[in-house]
Amino acid sequence: MSQSVEIPTLDTLAQELAAIQQTGSKRIALLGSRHVPMTHQNLIEMMSYALVLAGNRLMTSGATGTNAAAIKGAMRADPNLLTVILPQSLQQQPRESREQLQQVMHLVENPENDSLSLGEASALCNREIITRCQQLICFAFHDSHTLLQTCQEAEEQRKLVTLFYFD
Q1: d(Cα 31, Cα 153) in Å, to the nearest integer?
Q2: Which parts of the chain are coiled coil (predicted)?
Q3: Contact call for residues 150 and 138 (beta carbons, < 8 A)
Q4: Which tens digits make up the pLDDT trace of 133-148?
Q5: pTM for the complete prediction?
Q6: Helix axis angle, 38-53 to 66-77, nearest 10°
Q7: Distance from C-alpha of 56 to C-alpha of 54, rounded to nearest angstrom
Q8: Helix (H), strand (E), coil (C) string for 14-78
Q9: Is 106 helix (H, G, I), strand (E, B) or coil?
């Protein structure tokens, strides 16, 4: 049985190389699973702290786990370089998230999605986030359907995508 191998075009390779070599600040989205061990959350927090300290603008959503760790690190480095886009209104967020989210200067709510399921609202939110970023860093499990779909959509938009798997 033969397997087809997708060979990147010269144009794709050139775009990826240019994105990697860009030395100025970037708009980086950091998204991931809610179900993250504490040690991983600490690493994500350090990564977001370092990215923001380097002058990058960080975007994420408001869930617990990966996104909460990204928010914590970015807030420590420079709260002005953090944008959090919620899938629904602030009132729809879990109580443990609201306290942290109320400290965010650039908070975008989507109350028009309050009637949708969290999964549907999250997919729309992630789409909005990737349209605003140049690069996506994602932490997921192999069965994280919404996150993996977001990565695929980002790649289709020719964004630089870095995907880390927890499993």
Answers
A1: 14
A2: none
A3: yes
A4: 999 999 999 999 999 9
A5: 0.85
A6: 40
A7: 6
A8: HHHHHHHHCCCCCEEEEEECCCCCHHHHHHHHHHHHHHHHCCCEEEECCCCCHHHHHHHHHHHHC
A9: strand
The fold of the 26-165 domain, in CATH, is Rossmann fold (3.40.50)
Amino acid at 5: V
Are the C-beta atoms of residues 84 and 108 closer than 8 Å to each other?
Answer: yes
Q: Where are the beta strands (DSSP E) in 57-166?
A: 57-60, 82-85, 106-108, 135-140, 160-165
> Is 63 in contact with 101 (CB distance < 8 Å)?
no
pLDDT tens digits along 65-86: 999 999 999 999 999 999 999 9
Count CB-CB contacts under 10 A for residue 14: 11
Q: Which two tokens stand for residue 22?
A: 């860009």
